[in-house]
Amino acid sequence: MEREQLLSMGFPDDLASQALAATGGKSILKATEWILGRNKSDSQTPDENPNSSPSPSPSPFQPKLDRFFHFQSKPSNPPQIQIQIQKQHCDTPSLPSPPSKRLRLEAENSPHQPLSERMRPRTVDDVVGQNHLLSHKSLLRSAIDSNRLPSIILWGPPGTGKTSIAKAIVNSSSQPSSYRFVSLSAVTAGVKDVRDVVEEARKIKVSKNMNSKRTLLFVDEVHRFNKSQQDSFLPVIEDGSIVLIGATTENPSFHLITPLLSRCRVLTLNPLQPSHVASLLNRAVADTGRGLAWSVGGASIEVSDDAIDFLSSNCDGDARVALNALEISAVTAAARVPIKQSVCKFEEEEHGESLVENNWVGSSQVTTVTLDDAKEALQSKHLAYDKAGEEHYNLISALHKSMRGSDADASIYWLARMLEGGEEPLYIARRLIRFASEDVGLADPNALVQAVACYQACHFLGMPECNVNLAQCVAYLALAPKSVSVYRAILAAQEVVRESVGQNEGVPLHLRNAPTKLMKELGYGKGYIYPPDNPSSSTQNYLPPSLQGYKFLN
C-alpha cells in the first residue's frame, strides 16, 4: 500500500523501495521525507560552500508531491478550507478549525473506527460517571499514583467505561513506561493465547534486566473463560508476574472462580446518568481532532440540544450506544446538505501539472443534527436486558416483589420492562403460576386457576397479543389477598426430612396399603379407621410416632 502511494507521487520504483526499507515501511510520511532529504544532499557538490544557500532546481516529481500533500497545506483566506485536489473534480469540505497534525494523522490511520472508539478517554481524568472509583482518595486512584496497581475485576453494565478505564490506567500511571500493556478478548482468545502471555510475563519477571516492564494484562469479557483458563492466571497473579484487569458484565460471583476472586479486587461501575452521557456527546461534537467532524468528512457540524437530551436519556446509561447513535444521526443529517463543488483547472508544465485556478461554487453551509435525526438513528429506546444474565433475574425479582407487596402499578411496569426487553412470555407465565401458590395460596385458591389459564392463553396467542393476558393475571395476583402458609409448610416439612428429624422412619402399618393376603397377614392396614364411615373419629394418627404433635401448616 505504501509503495503504491509513493509510485503514485512519481517516485521511481527502486527509490520507493529504498525509502520504505530505510524507514521501516510503515509510514508514507517518513519515506517521503527520506527521499526529499536524500535528493537535497545529492544535489550538493563537494565544492559548494556549506554556509551558502544554493537554489537547487525543483525535483522532477515535485508538482505531483504538491498535489498529493495539498490537503495538508494551510489555507490562506477564510473560510478555512482543506482541499484534496483531484484531476477530474474536487470534493472540499469546510473545516471551522483544523485539528492538530498528530490528531489528524491518527484519525486518518483509522478512518473506519466508530465514534465511540475514537473518543475513548486517554487518561482516567477524562473518565466520567465513575467518581466513586477514580476520586483522588479512592483505592484505584491511589494505586495509580503510587504505581502499585493490584489485580482488579471491573464489573458493570455495557458502555460504562470498563475498557476505557483499563486502557487509561497505564497512561495515567506515574511511570507509564514501567508497564507492558497486553489486551485479550475472552471471546476470541484461546488457551494458547493465554499461555503465551503468561510465559512471556514469567520470562520478563525472571530476567535480570533492571528496566524490565511489568505485564499488565487486560482481559475483556473475562467471564467467558472456562475454569481451566481462569486457573492459569492464579500463579502469575500470586507471584506478581502479571497485573490482571478483567472486565465483565456478568456477576463475578456466578461466573468467576473463587480462587481468582480472592486474588483480585472487584470494582463495580455504575450506569451512566443522562448528564454524564450528555457531557460525552458534547465532547465528541467539540473535538475536531477525533470527534464527530471526522464522521462526516471534516464538515462543519452542529448538534441541537434536543438531540443531545434525547440520546442521553434513551441510551439506558450506555455511552457506546449514545455515541454511535450520534454518529449515525450526523451521517443522516450530512446527507441532506448539498455537496459543495469546486472548479479546478490545470495547466501542463514541463514536469507535470500545477493548479492555476480554484473557484468555489455555492456558499458555506453547516450541518445541523436535529431531534428527528437522533430519533431515526436510535430507532427505539435502548433497554439493558439479557435473557440469560443478571438483569433477567433482577427484573423478574422486581415483578415478584411488587406483586407480593400488592402494588399493581409497579407490577405492570416491571412486566412491561421484561416484555419490551424480549423476554419469553411463557417464562413469565410459569413464574405467575408459582406466585399464585407461593404468595396467594389458600387466601384465594382461584388465583392458581387464573395463572394456569394465563399460561394457556400465552401458549395459544403468543406475543404481542398475549401481553394483555399477562397484564390481567399480574394485576389479579397483585390485588389478591396473600397467604404464605402453604409455602412455609412445605419448606418446614422438607427441612425436617433433610435433617432426619424422626429418623425418617417407615410408614406406620395402619397407613400402609394391603393389596395381598400376605401383606394383610403382616399387619399392613390393620387398625386403619375409614374417615367417611367414622367422621367423628379424631384418635387416628397420621405422622410417624417420633413426629407426633408437629405442626407444619399454620
Automatic annotation (TrEMBL):
Residue ranges, annotated region (Disordered): 35-65, 86-117
Entries under InterPro entries matching the protein: AAA+_ATPase (IPR003593), AAA_assoc_2 (IPR032423), AAA_ATPase_RarA/MGS1/WRNIP1 (IPR051314), ATPase_AAA_core (IPR003959), DNA_pol3_clamp-load_cplx_C (IPR008921), MgsA_C (IPR021886), P-loop_NTPase (IPR027417), UBA (IPR015940)
GO biological process: DNA synthesis involved in DNA repair; DNA-templated DNA replication
UniProt source species: Vitis rotundifolia
UBA domain span: 1-38
Single GO MF descriptor: enzyme activator activity
One GO cellular component term noted in the UniProt record for this chain: nucleus
Pfam family, one: AAA_assoc_2
Domain of life: Eukaryota
Amino acid composition bias (Basic and acidic residues), ranges on this chain: 103-117
Family membership: Belongs to the AAA ATPase family. RarA/MGS1/WRNIP1 subfamily.
Name of the featured protein: UBA domain-containing protein
Keywords (A to Z) from UniProt: ATP-binding, DNA replication, Nucleotide-binding
